[in-house]
Amino acid sequence: MNLGQWIGLIAIMISLYILWQIREVLLLIFAAVVLATTLNRLALRFQKFGMKRGLAVLLSVAIFFAGVIGFFWLIVPPFAQQFHELTYRVPQGFNRFNMWVDELRNRIPEQIAPYIPDINSLIEQAQPLLNRALGNSFAFVSGSLEVVLKILLVLVLTGMLLTDPTAYRKVFVRLFPSFYRRRVDGILDKCELSLEGWITGAFFAVCVVGLMSMVGLSVLGVKAALALGVLAGFMNLIPNLGPTMSVVPAMAIALLDNPWKAVAVLILYFFIQQIESNFITPVVMAHQVSLLPAVTLIAQLFFVTFFGFLGLFLALPLTVVAKIWVQEVLVKDVLDQWGKQEEDDTENNTELVIVSEFAVVSEHQEVEGNKDEES
């Protein structure tokens, strides 16, 4: 390698190191881009009805904030009341379960009794985990100010991007060489359409899952069915892991009434997720975003490892955008073109050889024909 190649390699390594150090900032910027793209597409739909740009943007932002405020207004008050009740109901449940285990020990043979777990020993073994969870909760509360600042940063960036999205898009395109800018602009169009498709499919799935959860919980007589249904729909935005996380508070609240309700809630959520994964997602999302399930799960594990909870929440849109860039730039523009010029040159040389051989054969036949005529 010459000096120029070494300098280029060092520059790439330094750039990757800087990008790694600011990865959280880049993720917040991406979150603002996704939110701005969503609100901008909604504003464009309002503009099709003859509404001016400023009024359309204000209406889109108002709908977004109304949805956020309504979500927390529906979720926080019922959960605060129910989880406060859990603080003294759960110990009662543990005591009742321990009495039931003691009665069972007295009725079964002595050879099997040692294999039945003791609730007290389980609590002692789980004590370190509980202490660690409490420590994480305190750390979460202490870091709540940082979370609020990040949310404000995303909202401010979203507002700036919504004011004039075309100008920011031109700035991004100009970061590429002049011969490739039109290509980048086309890739950005595909990214925008794919994000719109993901948002449309995800919104439909959220509504269906939330409605089915609310109706099912209401039939079972579980308290706070509306709040739990909204939470189940919202957590459905996190594929694979979200439904598992949403069933925990539903089962905890159902356990306050009767243990069989908790089991019924688990069966209900399992049934809803089977419908969502086998019917809703294949029919809706397959037409919007074509992602393999294994790729989605691997992307979630990757982004949650390096970016935390926000990376888990943004794993799917990040994967959608990354797939387009890899497919268009790496596959089509690099790998598909790799060695293609040499193949074309080889084919052209082969055609020239064939034409030359054909010309020689024709000339030879013509000479033989002239000799026959002279004879």
What overall form do the CA principal axes indicate?
globular
Compute the average pLDDT: 75
The count of DSSP E runs of length 2 or more, i.e. the number of strands, is 0
Structural class: mainly alpha
Task: Work out the helicity level.
Answer: over 70%
Helix tally?
14
- The radius of gyration is 31 Å
**How much of the polypeptide forms β-strand, as a percent range?**
under 5%
Distance between the termini: 69 Å
- Provide the low-confidence segments as ranges: 133-142
Helix-strand pattern, N to C?
A: HHHHHHHHHHHHHH
The profile of the biggest β sheet is:
none
Topology:
Blueprint: H1 3-21, H2 23-47, H3 53-107, H4 119-142, H5 144-163, H6 165-173, H7 181-220, H8 225-235, H9 242-257, H10 259-288, H11 293-307, H12 309-313, H13 315-335, H14 340-374
Helix pairs in contact: 2-3, 2-5, 2-7, 3-8, 7-8, 7-10, 7-13, 8-9, 9-10
